[in-house]
């Protein structure tokens, strides 16, 4: 059996792992990346990119249906239809282009990719397995674990059960047909993004959430706008309800409300989206006996684990489980190994929900500022007063800014509305650069854009908004 020696071994070719390997190779660190499935990980294959492709397709179809029912904009369309198999193959084409691009980038930069499942032998040795056989053994100076996460199953209705009716987001992203009735278990961002897409594709959708509101990780003022939109779309939302399992003939999901009353929701498919958990089992990780933070690997602000020269990044290192956080950590670890002084202390990690309307939070909300003992001011500017929003036929939502009262340093931004995901870059930049309200208010924002609402929110916080 072949044994290879290298400086850095990366386990997992998702956004965390592949970015770490590219940056390490750019810095001339001999690097081997081991990926058991497809390069690009959850993000490119079964997560961010395919979900946004399906959301876009659903939105376009919904638009066509809207025009077919007669619209004030003057566009007429007759009887639109969708070929879901073609939609899925279009989505697969995007995934393929991106994942082969990742392979090409790794190769171009000189990182070696080995296809196979890594089995950790010790902190400096990894075996590469294929079909249960050991292909080769690699020794390394640094071991970077970027094994990602997996969807959480409900033990009483696991994925694939009830004749394949119970699915995870992975299956939901490659449908062969649009179910007539879809029940979504979980009112977090994955459940709602996909639930909304399926509704637009023509399914009757019911969302079941055990807490008393949707998107519980987000501030209620923002989620209220999404809740209203769900109602307008005709999505049933069952809050404060727990799922009990499928009924006897697998035709409905049994739910129980807070008062203990049981009822059934008829379904052709049930999408279980109740969260994701770090992938820490099945590849010998436990043999390292690393300190853990719950189910996640515990890391410090340089992504070091409790074992010297063993690093962990991305979803396997816990929340927030977001691709851009995994990438930023991957880049940083490569640079630290190359001798640069780096710490992972971002001013903020933006979070976006690609619901309709979209939702962005960056930095602190007014409540978070208050909880941190900071005297803060905040102001919001509604898209109803923004010209661009009107031209886009969507004036619901707002932008809100939070800043310190004493020196006007911006602490956070929140926005809800159509297309606000694209504002997250400006929000993140203002926090990272330590901008004040005056900086944003004094920056000329092009007209007509949604960005003008950002400037107006800052102006409003200073007491002199111009368009409201
Ligand atoms: C439906 C959905 C939508 C999402 N949308 C967004 C979004 O819009 N924005 C966002 O920021 N995030 C989103 N996410 C989350 C995002 O996909 C993850 O945060 C991100 O992929 C984490 O990257 P990672 O590198 O840590 O792990 P992953 O992307 O999970 O990659 C881990 C890789 O490691 C491989 N691996 C694991 N163990 C081994 C082993 N022993 N040997 C070899 N290979 C191994 C796996 O095969 C996998 O390819 C979404 C997720 C889902 C499911």
TrEMBL record:
Its cofactor is FAD. It catalyses: N(6)-[(R)-dihydrolipoyl]-L-lysyl-[protein] + NAD(+) = N(6)-[(R)-lipoyl]-L-lysyl-[protein] + NADH + H(+). Keywords: Disulfide bond, FAD, Flavoprotein, NAD, Oxidoreductase, Redox-active center. Its EC number is 1.8.1.4. Residues 349-458 form the Pyridine nucleotide-disulphide oxidoreductase dimerisation domain. Binds 1 FAD per subunit. It comes from the Bacteria. It is an enzyme of class 1 (oxidoreductase). The keyword Transcription regulation does not apply. Coiled coil: none annotated. The keyword Disulfide bond applies. PROSITE patterns: PYRIDINE_REDOX_1. InterPro entries: Class-I_Pyr_Nuc-Dis_Oxidored, FAD/NAD-bd_sf, FAD/NAD-binding_dom, FAD/NAD-linked_Rdtase_dimer_sf, Lipoamide_DH, Pyr_nuc-diS_OxRdtase, Pyr_nucl-diS_OxRdtase_dimer, Pyr_OxRdtase_I_AS. SUPFAM superfamilies: FAD/NAD(P)-binding domain, FAD/NAD-linked reductases, dimerisation (C-terminal) domain. Belongs to the class-I pyridine nucleotide-disulfide oxidoreductase family. PANTHER family: DIHYDROLIPOYL DEHYDROGENASE, DISULFIDE OXIDOREDUCTASE. The active site is a redox-active disulfide bond. This is Dihydrolipoyl dehydrogenase. The gene is lpdV.
